Amino acid sequence: MATLRLLLPLSVAAGIGFFDDFPAFHVRPPSNWINDPNGPFRDPVTGMVHLWMQYNPHGADWGSMSWYHTVSRDYVHWQRLGPTEALTFNPAKYPYASGGFYSGSVTLVNGSVPVILYTCVSSKGQVQCAAWPKDPGDPLLYEWQEDPKNPIISEFPEHVVSSTTFRDPTTALWDKKRQRYLAFMGASLLREDPYQPQTATVVGYSGDAAFKDWKFDSVIFEDRYVPLGMFECPDLFELPGGVWVLKVSTMVVTVDYYRLGVFDWDTRKFLPNGSAVPLDYGDHYYASKS
Fold it and tell me: What percent of the chain has pLDDT over 70?
């Protein structure tokens, strides 16, 4: 199977597909539904670029959400590896994800071992889970295994975060001062006053140096004037010169916005400078991923 995978790379740039209209530069599986890009990262050891996407292994409509894996060395020619088994819809095997495997990110733990942090959904709501490579030395990172403690983030501060609007973890940042990882999720803040609207927010959770022992840390940003009262698919990263970027996806209007500002490591708050700016002025640019 491994030999077959290596012998049959698919060149997207060359337009190799199954019909004339198959996209030449847009990465996708041969068939079936896809949406959000998930977990893009470049392996610092092998130079291989990894990209997953939300995928329905059973048809062309949204449902049975899973992760589909592709790899590249140049961002142009892509090899399809197919659904990642540890993140493929299978309620009997993964009851904590009986509602599917949703968007997430990859963090290089200790700068070397890639770990996928993602949202899994069941009848208990939305929680965060993790998967680790079975063989970190495999340049394709083809096989992954669930974290034995899944879900690794399932506790919510009382009256703070809703379990039905809590998803899409970011790549974790390393807090040098506290020696802990910080990952951020889109969420809604619950208010005691029922006449107040739910507030769209980005919340932070911290984990130890082993990427374990996660606990609620802070509300880093909130906005009361967002449709449906939540953010999806947040990103937080620093640009050269100390400028920070917070990107969020807003439901209903399906637009991605970013704000420039600073991230205060002491309070774990994002302090914006100026208004939100659309990433794109088209009618459906959504769920982007850095």
Answer: 89
